[in-house]
Amino acid sequence: MRTLLVFCFACVAVFLTACSTTCAVVSEGSIQAYMPTPNKGLGVSIGKDTVVNRIQMGIRSFDKETMPLSGLYNEENFLEKGDPAYNEKADIRYRMIRFPVTLEYDHFEKEKETLYNFGLGLNPYPYFELGVGKAHQFAEFGLALNIGIAAEDENLKGRQIYIQHTLAGDMDDYRSREWDGEWKLTAALEAYLNILPIKNLALTYSFTCFYPQMFDKVHGYDVSFDFPPIFMNYVGGSYVFAKHYQVALGAIKYGDYRLKHKYWYVESSIGYLF
After folding, report:
1. I need a labelling partner for 113 at 20 to 30 A (CA). Which of 98, 158, 173, 188 fits?
2. How many domains does the chain have?
3. 182/268: higher pLDDT
4. How far lies 240's CA from each of 58, 80, 90, 91, 269, in Å?
5. Global model pTM greater than 0.85
6. How distant, in Å, are the alpha carbons of 64, 77, 83, 266, 269 from that of 34?
7. Domain span at 137
8. Backbone φ and ψ of 116, nearest 5°
9. Model confidence over 186-221: pLDDT tens digits?
10. Could you tell me which of 19, 3, 143, 158 has the C-alpha nearest to residue 80?
């Protein structure tokens, strides 16, 4: 009889508290973002069915720039029942960091006119890159996906909301919280175009849509807004000399519609082809 009573109470508890959800309302703070190097493709004309490897070192001016974000709001409807008390502005800034030295290994394979690319790098944390494009005698263009990990410092303040779903309805409670650093996945969508007026010279345009954190979460808790990407536009050129050495120099602009300011920097690199 006692066992039956325990079982009945357990069933009632399960039905009354079916599941729970934890969310975050972020009111203010900053997030660190290590800025990637632009994807410039191979930048040299090669023959069909050719394999080229490249080790490349990027040399950049070290800088930290704080970029205020605009138009971010915690929405009341991210809770199932909604609550206007949580509809408030998210005053968040990106702290952009340009690490002074980056390293990357790239493997290129050209089959007919299709160019495949796989890359590994450090900036300063590890990432990998997959790309595909077209390589003609006087032009090269392609798309790539970049995925990395980073230990990013945070300085965020807000509220942690605990929602308990029961048969009697949703019950929510909250407490003030501060969040600091954590390991995150980063992502970048990349596109590039190389114009090759001569075999070893490339004039390059590259576009990058960079997400400092791939998922819209804070320490594993869902937030109601999307952390915006940073758009990067690169214009420059590269030249291969002595058959193996490739140097590149250009300018890059950071910004998008949610970033209140735009920034220009010089980007350079030296590589070895083999």
Report:
1. 188
2. 1
3. 268
4. 16, 58, 47, 46, 12
5. no
6. 9, 32, 35, 16, 17
7. 2-273
8. -105, 145
9. 999 999 999 999 989 999 999 999 999 888 888 888
10. 19
